[in-house]
Specification:
By secondary structure, the protein is α+β, with helices and mostly antiparallel strands. The chain has helices at residues 3-33, 40-44; strands at residues 37-38, 53-60, 66-68, 73-79, 84-89, 102-109, 114-122. It is rod-shaped and about 85 Å long.
């Protein structure tokens, strides 16, 4: 192998190594920063990420909202077309919160299969997304 072929092989090897490292960095970045919204069915079925902080996207069930005045907690249930989950929330209910509307909750699934919500986030995408609407939530 002459000198020009050795240089070409070395350059190709360095390029391949750098390309692999770039791909690895991009893959790790995407895995750490991607947002996955769980459904009630995904959280209640096994293996559910018990104790890990997750995002839950579902529709607030009509007539399910009740308040615990001793602990100042709100309790309600959410569902999609396939599953239902009970929620406990200790914060102030935001103005946009409505029964029958889609919301995103940030929180943890407890061992008793109750979702302990830390934050309620408005789900503005739900206005055009009918995939998670249950039959009883459509007017």
């Amino acid at each position: 192998m002459d000198k020009s072929n050795k240089n070409f092989v070395n350059i190709a090897a360095i390029f391949l190594l750098l390309s692999s490292l770039c791909f690895l960095f991009i893959k790790v970045y995407i895995e750490n920063n991607i947002k996955h919204y769980y459904s009630p069915l995904e959280l209640t079925s096994s293996p559910a990420p018990t104790g890990a902080e997750v995002l839950l996207r579902a529709i607030v069930d009509r007539g399910s909202l009740r308040f615990d005045l001793q602990n100042l907690n709100a309790h309600f249930s959410v569902s999609d077309s396939k599953g239902r989950l009970n929620i406990a929330y200790g914060g102030t209910i935001p103005d946009f919160f409505r029964e029958g509307k889609s919301i995103i909750l940030l929180g943890k699934l407890e061992s008793d299969k109750t979702f302990l919500a830390k934050k309620i986030i408005f789900d503005d995408i739900s206005m055009v997304d009918d995939n998670i609407r249950s039959k009883d939530s459509i007017l």
